[in-house]
Structures are given as C-alpha cells and as structure tokens.
Amino acid sequence: MVCWVRTLLFISVLVPAFVECRIRHYHFNVVVKNTTKLCSTKPIVTVNGKFPGPRLYAREGDNVLVRLTNHVQYNVTIHWHGVRQLRTGWSDGPAYITQCPIQPGQNFLYNFTLTGQRGTLLWHAHISWLRSTVHGAIVILPKKGVPYPFPKPYKEKVIVLGEWWKADTEAVVKQATQTGLPPNISDAHTINGHPGPVPNCSSDGISIGPYTTRVPFDHNCKNRNFLRFVNADAHTLHVETGKTYLLRVINAAVNDELFFKIANHNLTVVEVDACYTKPFETDTLFLGPGQTTTALLKADQGIGKYLIAISPFMDTVVAVDNLTGIGYLRYNHTLAFTPTTFVAIPAVNATPVTSVFSDSLRSLNSKQYPANVPLTIDHSLFFTIGVGINPCATCFNGSRAVAAINNVSFVMPTTAILQAHYYGINGVFTDDFPAKPAIPFNYTGTPPSGLQTMNGTKVYRLAYNSTVQLVIQGNTIIAPESHPTHLHGSNFFVVGRGVGNFDPEKDPLKFNLVDPVERNTVSVPTAGWTAIRFRADNPGVWFFHCHLEVHTTWGLKMAFLVENGKDPNESIEPPPTDLPKC
Asked: Which N-terminal residues, if any, form the signal peptide (predicted)?
C-alpha cells in the first residue's frame, strides 16, 4: 500500500495534516535541558527539549513508529500508557518487564498499531522517576470519516497536569531508597508545564510588570485577594464566546490524584482513558496519575478571565503537596487588566466529590461501541494492596517502607520477564503469584501483628482468551490510602466499588454488568475495594501496579503472563532485532 509518511522532529504542538496514511513516524530524542520553575533552575530529562514532551497524534488503526535515542546519562524506556499493544508487548515499555532499558547512547524503534482505540492517552518514561518530566499526550482520532459520538467541537485543547520538584527527582528517590523513608513531596503542580503563581516566587524567570502586586498565598483559591499577576508562569486557555471546545485532560503527575476545575464553567465528560462514556455534566474532574478525561467545554460566560485550578486529593494521614496549580481561561477580547473570576476548589479530603465523579462514569454501550463485559469468569482473583514496614539494618531508623500485593513485594529482575518467557530463560521469575492472600484478615480494620511482606518476582499465568474478575482490596496495615492502579496490555470494566471489606456474597449482587466504565487505570478508594473484569486476549507479559510512583518503587506491583493462543494471530510477535540488551 502506498502511504504518505510525515516525520515529526523536535516539535511538541504541531498537529499533522492527516492524509490517507497508516504510518506515523516520530523521533524522540531524550536530552537534558536547563529549566526554570519556582524561581530556580535545574537540568531535567526531556524528550526533544520539551516539558511536557511532544504530542503524539494518530488515527485509530494507524501504525506508529517512534525512534527513541538516548542522549542522557540514565537508562530510559517509554511506556505508551493505555495503548493495548496487541501482540506487540516488546513496545510496551516498562523496564525489566517487557524490555531491557535503552542505555546511554543507544536507540530503539517502538513499533505498535492503534487497534480499536480512539481518544486521549499519554506516554511517559517507565524507569525510576524519570516520568516526572518525561511525559506527553497521545491523541488518537477516529478513523477518517468516522464522527465523534458527541457534538463536534470547534477546537480541541490538550491539558497535561503534572508535578514539579525543585530538587532532582532521581536524587529524591535515591535518598528515599537509602534511608528507607518516604520520598520528599513535590513543590508544585503544573498545567502544561506551568505552575502559575506560587508562594515566595513572583515569576519564573519572567520580569514582573509594573501593575503586579503580591499578597499572601491562598491554596484554596477562595480569597479574592489571592494573587494578581500579569506575567506569572501560568498556562492560559484562549476561547471564543459561544464556541464549544474539547478538552483532553491528562494527569501525568507522579504521586498525586488531582481535582480540575474552571471558574463558572461546567464540563461534559464524554470519554476516559480512550473509552467513550455516556455524557454527564460536572464542575469538577477527578483524575488519578495515568488517567485521562476528555470533556466538552462551552464558552458560555461573559468576556473575562477565569481561574483554572488543579488541587490534590488525599483523604488520609499521608503527606501530600497541597499547593494548587493555577492557569487561566481567557475569552477573546478580554481587556488586559480585567479582574480574574476565582473558583472554590474541593477540600483536600473531599471523598464525596471523588465518589460522585467515579459513580457517574458509564460506558457508552452503543451498537457501535458496545461494553463487552465478561459475564462468565475463569479466574476469580482477590488482591490486597497497601504499604508496610520491614526491618532494614542500614536504614535511618532500622526499618524500610515497603508496598505489596497479597503480601508479596515485587523485586525487579535484571533480565526482562517477557524476554525470559519468550526464550525460556530460567531463574528470572516464577509463576506462583497468589490468587488471594495466604492469611485472610480484617483488611480495613486492625491488622495482625508481625505481618511482614515477602519478596519475589512472581507472575500470575493466564490462558489466552480466559476471563478474569479481580477484586482489589485496600488495606490499613500502615495507613489506608487511595491507590490508582494500572493494568498494561488490556482495558478492563469497573463493575463495582465500595468502602470497607469486600463481601463476596453481597457485593457481587450490586455489580454493574451492563454499562460499567471501561478504562486502564482505576482508583481503589481509601480503606475500600474496586472490582474489575477483563479478557486476557493479548499474549505477553503485562505489568499491574499502583500508579503512585512512590508505591511502585516500594514494590506494589506484579505481572500477568498471558499465554499464546492456538493460531499465529493469537501469539506474540517475534522480538524486534534492535531490542535493547540488559
């Protein structure tokens, strides 16, 4: 087939002019760039010198080729978060799970096809904490000629939410690993790379205009004397009165679940994690790290400037970066010094807001986009997840923070598990990951004494096309906490959620098996549970982990090994010749 090919070099915003093309070429150069935020400058790892990185645009069904060249001192991989990678697990990206990392001076061609997917996803580094600055948007448009299942917007806008540390994040995680203590929290939240006005810093390397004044910072955005900046480092969303915009909102933060609000404006949610939803209206979006939400915004307010605020959610005793990231929605023809309309953000522990948002999500479940929920189950799994403390003679206070699934804290191998599986290399992993806890206990009550985690590189084996029900149960061994959990290689349906211990007799009676939301990342509520179902129709090794990087670092992760089917098109493709070596 003759195909036009557009190669994108060192760009982050340009939308390709789409022609009848099935191949999209991108070049990702991993480089260090000095960047100024919060009145201080530091070198950060980036793709093509951009923060956030380049946006990857394609259409459903396109073949995407991304040549990544590593020009930095660290090993690097990229994960295409939410891309199913049907039979192309070699390009999924998690280091030592599906590939060995790309070493300094080396390169690798990621090669995958966007089969049966359309919507908003993200890409990010998947080794250490490099994803704090190495991330960007994936926009998958429908096939040419296929309309959206909602009114066509006037324009589309990508909004990437993130976290920023003044310190080098690799030094932050290294220090935490050495001491056994939790890592330092971030210093700010960002909107498309901009934190907006923040305490003790008037502007990020931008000269202050003569009309700028400074007043005490109010992270709740309720004080109308909050901050009045002309030239603050803030993202501005420009809109035209009466037009409708499609906002593609991505939470690329490392450790924080976030609320997103725009003053005086409601949003109509139409898609999450590249899966269409039944439209519903809300004034607040809630996204865990790795989640995306696509929503329609109608510019139906008076000409002026309106605050955009992102703020953290944490309904337990765990420390969190409690600073609000600030941006602006600005109508065309707004005068230069028009006062900003402010917004009241949810309380940091606003659990009801998260519950209402999560419970409102439903699959579109139309004839064109059905919700194919597995109704019969081959594997019924029960995973308890949480954090704990293990002895550590060399650590700061004689103990180390750990995290585990079913009391197994995952140990990263030194050879990629997918390679070991494909080539039959022994001694890299075992396939005895427990389907349920070895010792049942009151998961959300008082934990048993002396419960210490075990270490292991364990996978759970699934036959091709088998169906899985997985109940993810949060525990309170140290402290209850919300856990955004992500499954690689497959979407799943969120059939139920609740607070407290899962009741295997009563709770399944309330499962939604008709139109549950379909996604790839879901938050397990604090001291609660979430039930998901999926079909293991993608052969390979697929990571399952908490998407709070601190918990992944501590071991809250495992992998599913999906065996090949009987036919060649039910088997993983052979590894590429340039697959990195460990």
From this structure: 1-21
Three-class SS state of 178: helix
Closest C-alpha among 352, 362, 145, 192 to residue 271: 362
Digit-coded pLDDT (tens) for 124-143: 999 999 999 999 999 999 99
505-543 pLDDT per residue, tens: 999 999 999 999 999 999 999 999 999 999 999 999 999
Nearest alpha carbon to residue 134 among 144, 122, 145, 143: 122
Cα–Cα separations (whole angstroms), residue 230 to 79, 210, 217, 485, 532 = 38, 9, 16, 39, 47
Q: Which positions of the chain have pLDDT values less than 70? A: 1-21, 199, 202-232
> Residue 210: CB partners within 8 Å, gap ≥ 6?
none
- Asked if residue 369 is part of any domain, the answer here is no
Q: What are 51's two structure tokens? A: 């923060």
In which element (H, E) is residue 551 found?
helix 549-554
For 306-322, b where at least 16 C-beta lie within 10 A, e where not — what string? bbbbbbbbbbeebebbe
Instruction: Kindly report the number of other CB atoms within 10 A of residue 199's CB atom.
Output: 14
Measure the CA dihedral 221/224/229/234, to 10°. Answer: 30
Q: Structurally, how many domains does the chain consist of?
A: 3
171 and 264 housed in the same domain: yes
> For tokens 């004397």, what's the residue?
225
Instruction: Output the DSSP codes for 19-50.
Output: -S-SEEEEEEEEEEEEEEETTEEEEEEEETTB
Report whether 453 contacts 409 (CB < 8 A).
Answer: yes
Report the mean per-residue pLDDT for the chain. Answer: 91
Is residue 451 in a domain? Answer: yes
Rounded Cα–Cα distance for residues 281 and 270 (Å):
9
On whether both 252 and 344 belong to a single domain, the answer is yes
- In a shared domain, residues 137 and 50: yes
Examine residue 2 and state whether it is found in any structural domain, yes or no.
Answer: no
Q: What is the pTM of this model?
A: 0.93
324 in the same domain as 180: yes
Look at the alpha carbons of 528, 520, 47, 129 in this order and tell me if their dihedral is positive or negative: positive
CATH of the domain at 138: 2.60.40.420
**Under 8 Å between Cβ of 554 and 528:** no
Question: Residue 520 carries which side chain, given as an amino acid letter?
Answer: N
| Alpha-carbon span 257 to 341, nearest angstrom | 25
Q: In angstroms, how far is CA 494 from the centroid of its own chain?
A: 17
Q: What is the span of the domain harbouring residue 411?
A: 379-570
- 432 contact partners, CB below 8 Å, separation of at least 6: 458
* Backbone phi and psi for residue 418, each to the nearest 5 degrees, phi listed first: -65, -40
- Residue 418, classed as helix, strand or coil, is helix
